[in-house]
Every structure is written in C-alpha cells, then in structure tokens.
Write a structure and sequence with these properties.
The protein is an all-alpha fold. 70% of the residues lie in helices and 0% in strands. The N and C termini lie far apart (40 Å).
C-alpha cells in the first residue's frame, strides 16, 4: 500500500505536480535524514544530504523504473550523497590509498576482553527502541571505515557488492571490515546484552 501511494505520487510529480513531490518529501525526509546522519555523524551535513537527495530525485524522476520501492531508491541516492560528503571531508580513503584485504586480515583484528552472546540480528537490534541509542553511541565510537560498512550492510541492508561499490573497496574488504565492526560493537555492548539476557 505504501509503495503504491509513493509510486502514484512519483508519477504525478513526474507530470509536473509539485504538490505530489512535496508529499514525497514529507513522507521520506525523516528516514533519509536518519541514514545521512548515521553516515556523516553531522546534523548540518545530514540536512544538506537530504536536500541534495531530493534535488537529485527531482532531476531523475523519469529514471525511476519501479523495480524497488521509492524509499529504497531514494535511500541509495542519499547514501551516495552522504559518502560523497565524507570524501569531501577527506574521511574516506580513495581506492588508490586503500591498503587492500591483506592489511586487514585476522592478525590485525581486535582482541575483545568480553564478548557477550548476541542473540538478535543487527537488523532486529536496530528496530528495538531500547537499543537504538546504545547502538548509535557504540557506532559513533567506531572508525569510519568500520562504521560505514556496518551501517550499509547490517542496517541499510545493502549487498556486499553494492557496499563495495559505494565505498570503492573490494568485496573482501567489506567482509573483513564487517566482521571487525561486529566484533567491536559486541565488545562495546557486552555489558548491556549480558544484563538483558539474564
């Protein structure tokens, strides 16, 4: 139902109905802001990303084919803009400076002092209100290269291939960074999960 409403609004907007486009903005700006804020860790940058996203959507109204939901399509655009914002801030390495999978093998993985059993999947954890702030805080403590992979793979649900494309790294590096991110997050959240599992 939601997808059908969005598709109708998108069709109307592509025919010049800007009220329909405004409704699309209203329906999706908050969730796109959340994605952008997670990636950029900056309120002003996240707001800029949302604006850039809807400008891109407006310019590309005719490109939407309906293979996915409007929200998925807009989320991909927002993710690209957010990652571009990080690159402009020189947070992410360019492909030429990426050290490759060997630099991130098991020997360089963290050695957590405590790892509690993590019964829920990352997607389920992100949906529970009581863990959202804890997860956000823990994510904020990770290096950007690990944080971004976790956000794109485990929260936004991108494939390993798409994540690699967005970050300009190899698929193997995506897998290794995801493992490291999960390990580090488990260590940071061990106390909470130990308490809630008792």
């Amino acid at each position: 139902m939601e997808t059908a409403i969005d598709h109708k609004l998108l069709q109307d907007a592509s025919e010049g109905n800007f009220e329909a486009f405004d409704e699309l903005v209203r329906r999706h700006e908050r969730s796109l802001y959340v994605i952008a804020k997670r990636i950029t860790k900056n309120r002003a940058d996240a707001e800029d990303v949302v604006q850039q996203t809807f400008v891109s959507v407006l310019r590309r109204l005719g490109d939407f084919r309906g293979d996915s939901s409007f929200h998925t399509w807009a989320s991909r655009i927002a993710t690209n803009h957010a990652i571009d914002t990080l690159r402009k801030r020189s947070v992410l390495p360019t492909p030429a400076t990426d050290q490759g999978p060997d630099a991130e093998g098991p020997s360089s993985w963290p050695e957590p002092k405590r790892i509690a059993r993590w019964n829920s999947s990352p997607e389920e954890l992100a949906q529970h209100r009581e863990t959202v702030q804890l997860l956000e805080d823990a994510l904020g403590e990770l290096d950007d290269k690990y944080r971004l992979v976790f956000i794109l793979r485990d929260i936004e649900g991108y494939s390993t291939k798409k994540t690699a494309e967005l970050l300009d790294i190899s698929e193997n590096n995506v897998r290794v960074r995801l493992i490291r991110a999960r390990l580090m997050l488990r260590e940071r959240l061990s106390e909470f999960f130990t308490e809630t599992s008792n």
